[in-house]
Sequence to fold (1163 residues):
Amino acid sequence: MTAHSSVETADAAPHPLRAFWHSFSASNGALAGLGVVCSIALLAVFADVVAPHSPYATDSQAFLRPPFWEEGGSLVYPLGTDAIGRDMLSRLLHGARLSLLIGVVVVAISLAAGVLLGLVCGFLRGAVETVVMRVMDILLTLPSLLLAIVIVAILGPGMMNAILAVTVVVLPHYVRITRAAVIAELSKDYVVASRVNGAGTLRLMFSAVLPNCAAPLIVQASLGISTAILDAAALGFLGLGAQAPLPEWGTMLADSREFVMRAWWVVTLPGLMILATVMAFNLLGDGLRDALDPKLKRQ
Amino acid sequence: MLRFLVGRAVLLVPTFVGLTLLTFVLVRLIPGDPIETMAGERGIDPARHAELLHQYGFDKPLLVQYGIYIGRVLHGDLGLSIVTQKPVLHEFMALFPATVELSVAAVIFAVVLGLTAGIIAAVWRNSIFDHGVMTLSLTGYSMPIFWWGLLLILLFANVVNWAPVSGQVAIQYYVEPVTGFLMIDSLLANDTAAFRSTLAHLVLPMIVLGTQPLAIIARMTRSAMLEVLGEDYIRTARAKGMSPLRVVGLHALRNALIPVVTVIGLQIGVLFTGAMLTETIFSWPGVGKWLVEAIGRRDYPVLQGGVLILGSIVMAVNLAVDLTYGLVNPRIRHAR
Amino acid sequence: MRIHWLIGAAALLLTTASGHAKTLVFCSETNPENFGPMLATTSTSDTAAARQIYNKLFEFETGTTTLLPALAESYELSADGRVYTLKLRKGVKFQTTRNFRPTRAFNADDVLFTFERQWKKDHPYYPVNGGNYSHFNALNLGNALESVEKVDDHTVRITIKEALSPFLTNLGMNFLSIHSAEYAAQLLKAGTPEKIDQEPVGTGPYMLVNYQRDVAVRYRANPDYWRPQPKISDLIFAITPDASVRLAKLKANDCQVIALPNPADIDAIRKDPALKVESQEGLSIGYVSFNTEKKPFDDRRVRQALNMAIDKKAVLDAVYLGAGKIATNPIPSIVWSYNTEVKDYPYDPARAKALLAEAGYPNGFETDIWALPVSRPYNPNGRRMAELFQSYWGAVGVKAKIVSYELAEYLRRGRAGEHQTYELGWGGDTGDPDNFLYEVLGCAAVKTGRNNARWCNAGYESLVVKARQTSDKAERTELYKQAQAVFKEEAPWITLAHPIIFVPMRKEVQNYKIDPLGAYVFDGVDMN
Fold:
């Protein structure tokens, strides 16, 4: 991963990876976050094996069964069933897959596009920069959910379109970070020196400057996964995200809102999963920031 | 000084034009046209459909439509809602006070609790309290607020036995709108019962909307305080024997507040986003719910106008924050 | 101190003395679009305007679909069935509101205005407020009408181009609520014609006091009402979108009648000693149609097989949450001519499989199921229904992909026939079988796209066309019964449910009658 190589060049410490791990593992929160993220990822990958039922199988004899510890519940459906008799546990596990996918894809696309735009702005400056940064300003001006809703309204509801919408919403952050880092980096002596030595712009971009602004990007990316999951779930809640019968957590929540007063589990459990996952990624992101960026550590 | 002010304000013009262009184009790209939506399940005959398209100007070239649009916007005319046939601006103004009331309450809630928690956490760093505040703050920051709202309704209904609240005030109270702000109006009308009802309806939505800003403010306050507490002059004051309370209250807090105030100002976009979800859950009669509904009904003018006004408000608030910050802090004014 | 107390007591006495002011709060489900019955497309809007503020020439007796004279006292029909001569009621006054004081009683001009605004393109009011008269157009009245003439102040003659037996029931529909021509002229003069649908003036039992979006609609009894004075003097619609909140408010006596309860709560409401529930089968149907122009649904056996693959009882429980009656015929049993002899397809996956094999699909096939994107009484949760169908059809080897669009797009594509199977429903307007059997299932409706099964069966068509040209009710009944039998045999739809309308209320509320058309009516309601 570029993450590790960047740490090597940036810190130039004897054992950069170990130094990073040392600093990262010093924080209990970061470790807990990593642990939760890993276990959710494992569950997501092995959902087919772990889940007791298919997430789509309905049972017309068992609508809205409560979890096993409540009266009327059974271990056949450990966490109960939803309004058309599908196993909650299985749906939650398969939902983890979707949420992680959404988070990772959004971050991957916005990171790639954001870095590219940021590099272009930082290197070319002038009119291109002005236009791109103005557009980013406009995107930042709109309340994020409203912008996402408008985009989904254009493209039509659905998971892929929700991913695209959230990507557009978070894009400006990556562009800004990259651009700022590039401008700061370009004024440094080693860049000036390599320029004098005739290094091409492209080489400068990708081999000299980019690795040096990787740290803030990595931090933003890990925090960005949690934002992406949260925003996509909010879209799902408004009926604009992943569509039924996909077991996306936000969609599951929206679908069962009407049962809030009599079947707490159909509403509570998907939300709890969102909260746990988002929290884990936030902890992980905080830990990464502390470990990668000593300047920020004080905060 | 004047150059700084004007400079910042001029920067807004292209952003504003861009905003109008964006709202206009985005909204035109939405599939399904509003005439069809109005007709509903029964459908509409094609001749009449064409007639109405023409009447609303939806058949003109996009550029012409945009020109007409921008001309009207500059005159404060945001068009008529397709569903209700009332001016968009008029509808917005009628609903906006409710959103402001909710947002202001949420901000007060977040600031009061957030500052207190942040200061205490910083002063007793690494204590149980500090860890507690940080954990809660992380939870609040990670909270899907649409779920949080439902959870609170559920908890209050089952544990405290409160009826689920909806709306802004119990229906038996009718307060003649004077300012549009229900709280102020009910006080003006000297209707304490209505005022109390308004307060009771405000509590849960306020908590839900205030949670994220609260978490952010608590974190920011804590780190700003920690930074200030480590500065030399504070150490000097402490060494001189000034009481810890005075050190915190007099010196540290004042300096720690500047970044915190900035953050609060910049939270307005987050607040509007939160308001859309909170208002939807609690049936709060504000602009957030209005916009969510407009999207479902494909009410183009409402969507356009609403997004434009909210975007402009965010721009204006950001500018104001920027300016005050610049006025307070000369270093920023002279940079650039 | 004491003086204040005295004044307070006096005020209290005064309010109780001044004619038993009774207030009823109705917790409604959403905002009305407007207060113009001609433009309204939802029963919420009909409830807010047409059913409280306005009257029609004929009205359905509340709680039934029996047509009774209202602003028209009587009518005569010419021998060829084309000319209706209506005698209008005398001495009916329009409401006096903040902005309008009528100088004359209701007369033929008002009837003419009501028709012409929706009909004549050069009428000054035609384009006002969007001018989409969807009901008027949907019934194709513009072409069906030949003339509407004033004979004298209290006589109107309506001529239609061809004899049409269901025509009279149209006059009882909400979009023909009689508006005041005098008020319209006054507004036009003031340059504010748009107010006609915002500040309504009618002849009905209640007058609009004010409307706050998302909050409330407030009405006061019309002191000049031509029928006996309403018992409720102040009527308030508290707009409360959440069903559980509506119930909580009912229990707390914050409202006395509520709309659309969560069906799961009905039993609990019945047990509550302070509450009661009125119920009535609604005049609507939820169905899934097969696109009979596309393979394999052009084969009757496939349609029958997929009918048998569905456990309707489970659909009723999961989607309608029990608030419905399993539908066998396209018309609900409250509509005359309902054929009780028609037998529904049983839930029988084994026979379904056998039928599919017989039709040449032993291993099933792939298809799509279009899910209604919005909640409607005839289909409260289209998505959930589609998920259930997917699993039931999957059990007989038919793999269905769920497709959905935003409502407008969904309907447009549905009318164009892009689907293979399609969820929709129909809410009747008049209680005439023609309104279901011809308007939704006739061959003409294939062209307009409303017949989304795209089913045009010659035998069926001849029955329903003959029935609408016949004026003898017994003969019509027989024709419609035969049509229903053909429909079931051919199975262009899976008929799912006729929703049951539940209206929970406080025990104090008296004489509440449910409107099968889905609106809420408060004329005649009293409270103890």
